[in-house]
Give the backbone structure.
Amino acid sequence: MGETTRGIAAYDLPARVAAYDADMDLMHPNRTRMVEAALGVLPFPRDARLRAVDLGTGTGFLAQRFLERFAQSTALALDGASSMLELARARLGALAARVDFVAGDFRRLDALGVGLGADVALSSFALHHLGAADKLGLLRAVVAFLRPGGWFMNADLVVAEWPELEQRLQSLRVDGIVARAGGRDPRFADARTTRAWLDEMEREEGDQPLALALDLALAREAGLAVDVFWKDHREAVWGGPLRKDRA
């Protein structure tokens, strides 16, 4: 890539972050509230010198808010896509000096240098790409690298406990996206086009969210003392510290 092209690409990063955020606001209007709920539960003083691992950092939305809340802390931002890490670096700006950016599969934490220890493991809208077996494996790896007193917090998608309720919640989801789009985005012109776009996106991304009860059961099996701190339809914030027998 020539210097001019590289410069144009770098200049375009903030615009790409804005476009990504606009889509997230359409899909997940509670995202800010969820992140605030997750960080607000953490029982650490604002001046604590914490080390956090952000699993599937995306554009760094959660990492940014963690670093702003805990101004003496650092983070490792992990994502499978180098392009997303570029967007995260652009979003974080000066905060990026307190972040180690690592490209890799968070199902392979032991191979990514994450096992050096952390006080907090965080994730938002990322772990629903894992099935039950992979999620349990990840949670066990998290328990292994968390320091005594460490916490795990997750803000993510869940599915309903029975199909009829899931169908109803999906209908409400589609209606909300159409209303927020307000006719300005052809992808979400009506319920039919929105449903088709969502189905294709979820197939491409390999979405496989689990029922909340199963998520909690897997976390407890891995060694975490978890609870639910916020829930609305198909989105939930849950987490907790290492169990005392694992700390």
The beta strands are 51-55, 74-79, 99-103, 118-124, 146-157, 227-232, 235-241. Residues 3-159+211-241 form a domain with the Rossmann fold fold (CATH 3.40.50.150). Confidence is low (pLDDT under 50) at residues 1-11.
